[in-house]
UniProtKB/TrEMBL annotation:
Protein name: Nucleic acid-binding protein
Lineage of origin: Bacteria, Thermotogati, Thermotogota, Thermotogae, Petrotogales
Source organism per UniProt: Defluviitoga tunisiensis
InterPro entries tied to this protein: PIN-like_prokaryotic
Superkingdom as given in the UniProt entry: Bacteria
């Protein structure tokens, strides 16, 4: 099973809509960095493992292009076998795609949760996400809603 490494945005938005459990149900455990834990600003559940980045120089280099939280999870992905990053930030996603690292985002997580019947309505989740300040284009929302009839 892949090792899922999450950035802060997915944790915050799912926590804000009381759906953080989705990550546990899907992946059993996820990994974050101390930088992400600090940004999350809440107690970390026991099923979330906090791991430091060993290569601080690589972390520092990445941090010149993107925020520290994103930089730390990308750096960690190179240190952990079979890593999949959960990142929403567009700039970080573009960088990750150039680095040939597996990637998903909060929306990918909820679609996967729907496919595995952990949640029963993407429409309800999308409504809650938008109400909590998560931005999504109408086009992408319509694309995601195609999975609601599973």
């Amino acid at each position: 099973m892949p090792n899922y490494i999450s950035n802060t945005s997915c944790l915050i938005v799912l926590d804000n809509i009381d759906m953080l459990f989705i990550l546990k149900e899907l992946y059993r455990s996820i990994i974050i960095t101390p930088e992400v834990a600090k940004e999350f600003e809440k107690p970390i559940p026991e099923w979330i493992k906090v791991k430091d980045v060993d290569d601080k120089k690589y972390l520092k280099l990445l941090n010149t292009f993107i925020d520290l939280g994103e930089a730390s999870v990308i750096a960690l992905a190179f240190e952990i076998e079979d890593a999949v990053l959960i990142i929403d930030d567009l700039k970080a996603r573009k960088l990750v795609s150039k680095l040939d690292v597996k990637l998903t985002g909060t929306l990918g997580v909820i679609v996967n949760a729907r496919k595995k019947q952990i949640i029963h309505s993407l429409e309800d989740i999308l409504y809650k996400l938008k109400k909590a300040g998560f931005r999504i284009s109408n086009e992408l929302e319509n694309e995601i809603l195609k999975y609601d009839g599973l």
